[in-house]
Amino acid sequence: MAEESPILAVEGVSLRFGGVRALTDVSFTVRPGEIFSIIGPNGAGKTSMVNCVSGRYRPTEGVVRFGGQDITRLGPNRRAGLGIGRTFQNLALFGHMSVLDNIMVGRHHLLKAGFLRGMLYWIGGAQTEELAHRREVEEIIDFLEIQPVRKAIAGTLPYGLRKRVELARAIALKPRLILLDEPMAGMNLEEKEDMARFITDLNEEWGMTVLMIEHDMGVVMDISHRVMVLDFGRKIAEGSPEAVMAHPEVKRAYLGKDLAEPEPAAA
Amino acid sequence: MDLTLLLQLTLNGLIVGALYGVVAMSFVLIYKASQVVNFAQGEFLLVGAWVCWWFLTEWQLPFYAGFIFTLLFMMLFGLVLQMVVLRPLIGEPVISVIMATIGLGIFFQALMKWIFGVFAKPFPPIFETEQVRVLGLEVQTVYLASLGVSLLIMAGFGWFFKASKHGLAMRATAFDQQVAQSLGVSVPKVFAMSWAISAVVSAVAGVVVGVVNGVSSALSFYGIKVFPAVILGGLDSILGAVLGGVIVGLLENWAHYIDSQWLNWGNMFQIAPFYGLVLILLIKPYGLFGTRNIERV
């Protein structure tokens, strides 16, 4: 494995909605096997950045490369097929479906048997296929500890569990890169700890590269390998969690101007 | 009181109602998948029936072959219609899309008259015996076959949505298109597929009705009958569409019975379902099985 070739490379991406500049010339790379976090104040363009990677937005300028391939023009479903999974900031489960069905949708592009082979369920190989998929899905369910609710209707579950089911659905895609948009928003301490453990396990044991947006600084600093800071659509810092925390620009973005810093002398 | 007539009409109502249910289902399918209210649903029946008639009379094909060719044709028809007319309208206001489907309806109505003429034309006989006796009642063989076909289609729909990859993708798309895309589902494909399936299923109903009554532009009236059925059941419920269809079929035939026995007003047959529709909307504005807060047409 060439450790230097990045799995995701974002090069000079700008995104404009009419006169609003959501992102301005942002570049970064994510290396295979790392947990890369994007932080920044509200409205900094974090979700816009993730949407440019997942394909929901098309950048006005710039290039997004995934595993060396230019994916800037590909639709979201094609990117999912290439191995980019994601979860959403606001829960986006299929509320009327069971947890299992929700996760099975994540297998969509991996399922081969179409309409006709499905009709010949027992002889067309669809059954063996489904069994294999179900086995993997059960593994994911075990991993995220949601066995007790697998048959439940997703919309009836409590918030923390729904977040987990959403993660399970994204994992079911077998992505090489998983985008997590605020995986811990609105969770209590215990749920946050569980989620942090799932993310690190996902990264270490399942070998998934993680690109994450999160507001909880404690978690971000604990589990991320590298952090990028956005402010008003511009990248202001990137590096190890410690380095980023100490960066004066970051302090300014989060806390306002440093009072100790002297005013630049008026000319 | 003529009990045999009542029973006979009830049976007719069930059979015709099942057909309404099938058409209503294909209407709901399009609405659920792509949020398009398809006012050209009746014309799907019409086109399907004429194409089948053409295969059988002009090409002298045996029924099963002509029927299969018709279904293949309708599949392409639905796909092309979605890709050429509806796809560019994605994201346009609902009213524009509705106008487009009304336009399609008028267009195909006129096109069929232009090609095949304005007079009803009978299908060549398909079954050897026109009528069979079931429990002492006269039933058209075609209707009996159509009941079987309707049930088969309904079971097929149930299976499709529950157990097939594409059905699951369709449900996911109906729920949230962006999420479905993020999971690798191609939304344009799902839209095209829903139109193709809808056209095929409607054509089956069109052929059945055509065999019984002959093919004429009256067939597209089924598209209007579908509205009470669909609204009764709830605009976005497949099961509701089936039940709504059956209820409309029964209402029609019972109204006919009451009319012929006592009222003698004539035409109750056609109007009763719409009275039913108004009543249901007063009591349950979202239909029997519909979700709240969906658009009304």
From TrEMBL, chain A:
A molecular function annotated in GO for this UniProt entry is: ATP binding
Q: Which residues form the ABC transporter domain?
A: 8-257
| Keywords associated with the record | ATP-binding, Nucleotide-binding, Transport
What's the superkingdom here?
Answer: Bacteria
Name assigned to this protein: ABC transporter ATP-binding protein
Q: What is the lineage of its organism?
A: Bacteria, Pseudomonadati, Pseudomonadota, Alphaproteobacteria, Acetobacterales
TrEMBL record, chain B:
Describe its membrane topology.
Answer: Multi-pass membrane protein
Q: What InterPro entries does its record include?
A: ABC_transp_permease, BCAA_transport_permease
Q: Keywords for this entry? A: Amino-acid transport, Cell membrane, Membrane, Transmembrane, Transmembrane helix, Transport
Keyword Cell membrane (UniProt)? yes
Quote the subcellular location field of this record.
Cell membrane
Query: What Pfam families has UniProt attached to this entry?
Result: BPD_transp_2 (PF02653)
* Designated name of the protein: Branched-chain amino acid ABC transporter permease
Q: What family, per the record?
A: Belongs to the binding-protein-dependent transport system permease family. LivHM subfamily.
Which CDD domains does the record associate with it? TM_PBP1_LivH_like
Membrane-spanning residues where? 6-29, 36-56, 62-85, 97-120, 140-161, 190-214, 226-250, 262-283
Identify the species of origin.
Answer: Falsiroseomonas selenitidurans
